[in-house]
Amino acid sequence: MSTPDSQPSAATSILLLGNPNVGKTTLFNRLCGLRSATANFPGSTVEARIGRSSQGIVKRKFTDLPGTYSLHTTDDLAKVCSHALDGVDCDPPDTVVVVADATNLRRNLAIVNEVLHHDIRCVVVLSMADIAQKSGLTIDCEKLGAHLGCSVVRVNARSGAGIDALHSVLDSPYKAAVALPEVGKFKEVNAWANEIIADSVGGKLAVSGGTLTDRLDKVCTHSVLGILVFAAVMIGLFWTIFTLAAVPMDLIDSVFGYLSSMASGVLPEGAVHDFVVDGVIAGIAGTVVFLPQICLLFFLISLLEDTGYLARAAFVMDRVLRRFGLPGQSFVPFLSAHACAIPAIMAARIVPDRRDRLATILVAPFFSCSARLPVYVLLVGVLFANQPFFAGLAFFACYALGAGAAFLTAFIMRRTILPGKSRPMILELPTYKLPSLRTALLNTIDRAWVFLKNAGTVILAIVVVLWWLSAYPKVEPMQDESIDTTSQLSTSYAGQIGQFVSPVFAPLGYDWKLTVGVMTSFAAREVFVSTIAVLVAGSDDVDDETIMEKIAHAKRADGSPIFNVPTSASLLVFFVLAMQCLPTIAVTRRETGSWNWAFLQLGYMTVLAWVCAFITFQIVSGVVA
Amino acid sequence: MTLISPKIDHEYIPLSQLREREKAVVQVAELDSSECEALAAMGLHEEATFELCQQGQPCIVQVEATRLGLSREVTERIMVRRCSVCN
Fold this sequence. Notes:
CATH class of the largest domain in chain A: Alpha Beta
Helix content of chain A: 55-70%
Strand content of chain A: 5-15%
CATH class of chain B: Mainly Beta
Number of helices of chain A: 26
CATH architecture of the largest domain in chain A: 3-Layer(aba) Sandwich
Oligomer: heterodimer
């Protein structure tokens, strides 16, 4: 422990701690900008962001931990923050920066007190000081620091005001011995905080009701109006995502198309050419093409979260979700699941209760992700060609079927393997405010990188393996030296496996080609479209209208159409309900800490998809006949 | 600053029976220990004073500058005493 008189060394490894919604991440982004990465805290699924900052010759590492109200509660976050402070399973920090909301000092002093009980140098950063000042509060940082035995700095992370002062105190942080109340004794802690506030704060701290926040809450959490606001926000969100994402998605598609043709022109025909063009480039393109939708979703969610609306939306959804044994917080992962199940499962960390969290993780992949979209487009196009109204209705039905299956599954799980009611909601409702574009952008970049790293690499590896399975063994060229693509696929390892497994899918109306398509899509759903295009049309250019027509009119060995109405409907149901994404299984295993949950999810969803697709095939066959 | 002694009712009532804009003091929360811990860490511990902003689902209370949303199941199990003058 050092004192102000003992020439302390500069802080180089710093932990950022504080309550949720105090502007900790905004401060982290201001300090580190893009020089940061998200990593799991050792031994846990709790994410910490690690960033670096240079100030003159001093290089500093900042670790931004998730917000917590206390270091001594029994939840995972508190344990991780406490371990990080003590250097358990990680390098111990040399300094801790506690971010405290200046407008809510009494509560924030409780966690400052907890940190001060640890043997580590401390700096208290007062955030929201501008708001405190506007509401008539005056805080004497020197007096406050004298009471706490550490430096106190006022920082406005949005404007950057006070950042230099923070770096300056980080050059010589200290911790002086002061009398502290016992942690957990609320009366003592309150008395201590009151004494400090009385001496160093002028004005009235408490915020009374009757504010704009009150009036907005009356609308946003109202039993009827709240649902209308929620519906309007969600429709706006998805409309924006699907409208705006189309442009960069087309651009990415074109860039990879160009790369593919360039590689084709440069590389001579052969194994290397096929590997690069059909394996690597096609594999990367298949993943990266969904990035705009995922980025937009995270950007908009980050903006919404910053406004304070998401906490209210969680209460609106709580009324619906609780009937199925899920808490209101689950709605945020379910929202993310419409882009991709992987970030959705990771977002389930915000659900505090373990059983609630498991139920959320297990049902999240039922929600229609963007990877299902190309399959929906193909099958709905085949089913309702030139009937836009019915095509739109079928799209809506797919989304509704996925959501219905998720809720029904949660309902069953909470009465069987995960018994019990969902934990009642206790949530801080942050004040409504204008969102920070900078924070949203940095969060989006961070999330996009995590997605590309976690999913892209895995999907790429799987697609390359699938390409190899469908490309080998090679068939002999015909007399004109050309290779029949259909023969190549039927004799390939993938084709052989498909023909071997086809009896399993025959009751659903699928022939061996569709079986291969379904099998390959267990790696990633979007692979189905290109597989089918290659198998039934001899080309993977699905943008070409003639290819779509060829797919629609493709025949089986007996001359009947492959995509008849019952088969197409059955396929659509199968793709809505089946778990066909290996990276999702890997993420489920990581987040639940067990392969058992991951295999249960895979097995349950696959069996449910098969049974429902079978029922659909039988019913539609009966109706059509 | 002049401190006014709060007038606190002797009668305990569930938080769910409080009227909007009424102030009260938390007496006891008959909840799981994890829920009690969460509430206490957010500032709603025994003897904490708060103001009820909105009754219903969610019930919204203001503890100092902290605004908390609580589901009805929680508010039915938090016993409070009305406080006519609370600072």
